[in-house]
Write a structure and sequence with these properties.
CATH architecture of the largest domain: Sandwich
Largest sheet: 6 strands, mixed
Radius of gyration: 51 Å
Distance between the termini: 112 Å
Structural class: alpha+beta
Number of domains: 3
Helix content: 25-40%
CATH topology of the largest domain: Immunoglobulin-like
């Protein structure tokens, strides 16, 4: 076993208890402590203990404190009688609360009467819904009579009526469902009416999201000329029908193809505050951007049932960057540059996109 040194040596501890610090001999001849692990006193040095000095008088003052307690004054005896102001106030509050209870009781009776009225209306609506279900079943059966035999039609009609009656009895929350159906029907009627009005005015449908109505001669897709749906002159050059910085109908066979604007009508069927996003793109040759300044940044959002007008009467800054009139002689120098391109109107809502393309021609005299 290894020999224990320093304060871990029990023999050294016993010698320190008897001889004190004189038992520690770790200094060499030069007065320096050395630790060579050769004796059991290695690792132990001594030092003087300094006893702090205190002001005894001040110390006595700090601890010689006499604590005494002040006895509280005994409260006067309490009278067990109720003061008249308090009694009158409580009595009046009882009277007021009694009147309030009577008023609330009257309101409860009134509300119960209203609840009964609502229940009567609900029952009436249930009957109306049953009648609607029966009408739907009857209409379905009438349609099936054209393609099936009379015997099978009667059987299907009886089954449909029984099924409709059972479903009507088992439905829950009938009043809320009826209101929802009426709102949807009203929305669909408005959407169909708006679409019919737009189509009657010469608009063309993109599908289910919107309709496009052109100003002027109506739908340009119905009467294209040489495959061109919309044609126009720009600038006041030689042979142009337009003036400087303006658009106008082209001559020759194209006068009736000119359109100065179009409107995008968002479908009213977009319920719940839904919107469509409308973008207009141009492609074909050098016509990579819009030649028109619509007055706002694309794409633009339109709420359901609203209309957004796109004005094609103002030129864009891009139109000034492409070639206009050209040629070397007096007459050929005034020859317009012809641009055939496609304008694509894109309508997007909730991940669904509908596009309409229009073939266009621009005679650039600028």
């Amino acid at each position: 076993m290894a020999q224990k040194t320093g304060l871990q040596n029990e023999a050294l501890i016993s010698e320190l208890l008897v001889s004190g610090s004189s038992a520690i001999k770790t200094k060499n001849d030069f007065g320096i402590h050395t630790f060579e692990q050769t004796s059991n006193s290695d690792g132990v040095i001594s030092a003087k203990l300094v006893k702090p000095k205190y002001n005894q008088n001040e110390l006595i003052k700090s601890i010689d404190t006499v604590i005494f307690e002040l006895l509280p004054v005994a409260p006067p005896p309490i009278d067990d009688r109720i003061p008249r102001p308090v009694y009158n106030q409580v009595t009046q509050s009882v009277i007021d609360l009694t009147a309030q209870v009577e008023q609330l009781t009257t309101e409860v009776f009134t509300l119960r009467a209203k609840v009964q009225d609502v229940e009567i209306v609900s029952e009436s609506l249930k009957v109306q819904l049953d009648l609607k279900d029966l009408n739907v079943a009857s209409s379905q059966n009438q349609a099936s009579q054209l393609t099936s035999k009379v015997t099978s039609t009667i059987t299907e009609l009886q089954n449909s009526m029984q099924k409709g009656t059972l479903e009507a009895i088992q439905r829950v929350s009938l009043f809320a469902r009826n209101q929802s159906l009426e709102q949807e029907l009203s929305t669909l009627r408005e959407a169909v009416s708006a679409k019919e009005q737009a189509l009657a005015a010469g608009a063309l449908s993109t599908g289910q999201l919107a309709s496009i109505l052109f100003g002027g001669a109506g739908d340009p897709t119905k009467s294209p000329v040489e495959g061109i749906m919309i044609a126009m002159d720009y600038g006041g050059g030689y042979g142009s029908t337009a003036t400087t910085g303006k658009f106008a109908a082209s001559g020759g066979p194209f006068p009736n193809t000119f359109r100065s604007s179009f409107e995008v009508i968002a479908s009213s069927a977009l319920a719940g505050g839904k919107e469509i996003e409308v973008d207009v793109k141009f492609s074909g040759g050098k016509m990579t951007q819009s030649p028109f300044d619509f007055g706002f940044t694309l794409p633009v959002k339109v709420k359901g049932g609203d209309t957004k007008k796109f004005d094609m009467s103002k030129p864009s800054s891009f139109l000034g960057t492409i070639q206009g009139s050209h040629g070397s002689s007096f007459f050929s120098r005034s020859k317009a540059t012809v641009y055939d391109y496609t304008m694509t109107i894109s309508v997007t809502s909730e991940g669904k996109t509908e596009n309409k393309e229009f073939k266009m021609r621009l005679y650039h005299h600028g």
